[in-house]
Write a structure and sequence with these properties.
Elements: H1 4-18, E1 30-31, E2 41-43, H2 45-53, H3 57-67, E3 74-80, E4 84-89, H4 91-104, E5 122-127, H5 139-157, E6 160-168, H6 173-186, H7 205-214, E7 218-221, E8 224-227, H8 235-256, E9 263-266, H9 267-272, H10 275-285, E10 289-292, E11 295-298, E12 309-312, H11 321-333, E13 339-344, H12 348-360, E14 371-375, E15 378-382, E16 385-387, H13 399-406, H14 408-416, E17 424-427, H15 428-432, H16 439-457, H17 475-496, H18 501-519, H19 528-552
Parallel strand pairs: 5-6, 5-13, 6-9, 13-14, 15-17
Antiparallel strand pairs: 1-2, 2-4, 3-4, 7-8, 10-11, 11-12, 15-16
Helix pairs in contact: 1-3, 2-3, 4-17, 4-19, 5-14, 5-17, 6-7, 6-8, 10-11, 11-12, 13-14, 16-18, 16-19, 17-18, 17-19, 18-19
This protein binds one RNA strand through helix 2, strand 12, helix 12, strand 17 and helix 16.
RNA sequence: GCCCUCGUAGCUCAGUGGAUAGAGCAUCCCCCUCCUAAGGGGAGGGUCACACGUUCGAUUCGUGUCGAGGGCGCCA
């Protein structure tokens, strides 16, 4: 398999060297032109050289082209515009991608970028969702789940050893509130009642928990199992049961969303194992703390924060950011030199604090560690109006509502298909539409169409591996092949930029090329070599669609 | 007031230091005697919020203004 981009870059390098151009300050950039008339690859090298060489770009481009070594892959080279050098590949080298896809199958598009110098995958942890067990997962968690899981898949595809982690708080003020709410429901106190806890959770799901608790049910979550004792006055028993119950429910939601975590971390464990206390002691020892007004402060302003932060309140308890620092120190100590936290944008202020706390420990943790991917808010629309409530949860739209309404595939696609840092409007009507309005079905349909043609042909897809591809010389075939050949770059860039939405966009374009090709091409034609070549091309496209959909966690159906 | 993200077609959103700024929906016109029309082809629709700067070149980078959302607690 020849990496054409690298090959052309080498040619340019050689040409520049021959005309003794200084490339030390210049990075040779090869891009894929938007328009076919600008060739298959294009470079602005001549423009970059114009200033240092004090010559006009077109003249430099001409000299570069003259100095280019011969290549068996290139049909012609042109100068265009202000001094672009455009490379046109010959038909044969465009066709190599089809054979490459057959050769690599499910692995096509994967790479080893995440391997260390010894060729071993490096560890990376992706922490996402991390919802506290105080209610069902909501749309925001859903966005985090879709983006986080897709990030994890992208990192796996680029050679990283990924651990998916879920962190939650099973103690503290919010959980106390949960406990009080369940206890109130156990005693038949309704939300209208004055004695219902003021900051209690009012959703119907609290009633379900209370019923299950009184019925002494047993609940099993991914990380625990609890049997209720039925005594509503036993706050500790209620707490433990309620947490397990909601963890179980979240597990069901995540399962329906086809997401699985490798590890669960509990905030309470950071206390019980002494990690919080050790972190506090280490921070005090580092000399970055001081006492003021009965509280213990950390000088986070030494590390870019706009004001110092309280670690230990005057009443004696720690503020939330202390266990946060302890938690991240724990991640570091578990050997994750790379950690990505996928969270809602409302957590953005914690970034500076967590990093500052880690810096204050003076343990040579890089100042930009860990990485964060923050997603903005999701607005749910239905029937042209914003949906704000779910009966069950009371105050927000749940992930389960979306999955029930539009299915797992469409929910995952819609939540991952937008840049994380822009606000998202989730239109239930669009996601549910079983028509061409819906990009999920558009992509899946392309896959299913190919399956259908291959099924009617009836041969072994594997036998297409070695067919002669030279009949593939139509413009729409060239376009499709070009699209397929971009896939590995798209995957690599998406992983590097932590941008799953790039995969969704690519798939839409790839599906579009396929549909277009499908519409003006007959595949099961008389001429055997043409038929086989075309079938090979669509089979390769099928593979790309499948690989890409898999990165999004969306199914690639054979039939629709 | 300070911090973060965003501002691109009527709507939902891509995109990029470069060559006429793209897609889907919506509107209008075409295409199934033929492998899935859940499809394709075409038309219209844009001062890339605004201003100034850097650059050979800015929608993209910088600064400022305006607008939207979020965050600014000895809550988590």
């Amino acid at each position: 398999m020849v990496i054409l981009k690298a090959h052309i870059s080498d040619l340019l390098q050689a040409a520049a060297t021959q005309m003794s151009a200084d490339l030390s300050q210049i990075n040779i950039v090869l891009e894929r032109p938007k328009s076919a008339e600008h060739g298959d690859f294009s470079t602005n090298l001549a423009m970059q050289l114009a200033k240092p060489m004090r010559q006009n770009p077109r003249a430099i481009a001409e000299r570069l082209i003259k100095a280019l070594p011969q290549s068996e892959y290139i049909a012609k080279v042109e100068i265009a515009g202000a001094g672009f050098i455009n490379f046109f590949l010959n038909a044969q080298s465009k066709q190599t991608v089809v054979a490459d896809i057959f050769a690599q199958g499910d692995d096509f598009g994967r790479n080893n970028a995440g391997h260390d110098v010894n060729g071993k995958p490096q560890k990376v942890q992706v922490e996402f969702v991390s919802a506290n067990p105080t209610g069902p997962l909501h749309v925001g968690h859903g966005r985090g789940a879709a983006v986080g899981d897709c990030l994890a898949r992208l990192l796996e595809a680029t050679g990283w050893d990924v651990t998916r982690e879920f962190y939650y708080n099973d103690a503290g003020a919010q959980i106390d509130n949960l406990t009080l709410s369940v206890q109130a429901r156990c005693k038949g106190i309704s939300t209208d009642d004055a004695s219902f806890p003021e900051n209690g959770y009012r959703g119907d799901y609290i009633v379900d928990i209370a019923k299950a608790f009184l019925a002494k049910e047993t609940v099993v979550a991914d990380d625990m199992q609890v049997t209720a004792n039925g005594d509503a006055n036993d706050a500790e028993a209620v707490r433990i049961f309620a947490v397990a119950y909601l963890r179980h429910e979240q597990d069901l939601d995540l399962k329906a969303f086809q997401i699985k975590f490798d590890t669960f971390s509990l905030e309470s464990a950071l206390y019980s194992t002494g990690k919080v206390e050790n972190t506090v002691q280490a921070l005090i020892a580092s000399g970055k703390t001081y006492e003021e007004g009965d509280a213990l402060w950390l000088k986070t302003t030494d590390f870019g924060d706009d004001k110092d932060r309280v670690m230990r309140k005057s009443e004696g308890g720690y503020t939330y950011f202390v266990p946060d620092v302890a938690y991240h120190l724990d991640k570091w100590n578990r050997g994750f030199k790379r950690v990505i936290n996928e969270q809602g944008a409302d957590h953005h202020s914690t970034i500076t604090r967590v990093r500052a706390g880690l810096q204050a420990l003076n343990m040579n943790i890089p100042s930009g560690w860990p990485d964060y991917v923050l997603h903005q808010m999701v607005t749910v629309m239905h029937g042209g109006e914003e949906v704000k409530l779910s009966k069950r949860a009371g105050s927000y739209v749940t992930l389960r509502d979306l999955i029930d309404e539009v299915g797992c595939d469409a929910t995952r696609y819609f939540l991952a298909a937008r840049r994380a840092d822009s606000q998202l409007v989730f239109d239930i009507d669009l996601a549910r539409a079983q028509t061409n309005d819906n990009p999920v079905y558009y992509i899946q349909y392309a896959h299913a169409r190919i399956c259908s043609v291959l099924a009617q042909w009836g041969g072994e897809t594997n036998s297409l591996k070695t067919v002669n591809l030279s009949p593939l010389n139509m413009p729409n075939e060239a376009k499709l092949m070009q699209r397929l050949s971009e896939y590995p770059e798209v995957v690599n860039d998406a992983a590097t930029d932590l941008a799953p939405h790039a995969i969704a966009n690519y798939l839409k374009e790839c599906a579009s090329d396929l549909h277009s090709y499908y519409n003006d091409t007959k595949f099961l034609v008389e001429d055997e070599s043409t038929k086989l070549a075309r079938l090979a091309l669509i089979a390769a496209t099928q593979q790309i669609l499948k690989n890409g959909l898999n990165l999004l966690g969306v199914s690639a159906p054979q039939k629709m």
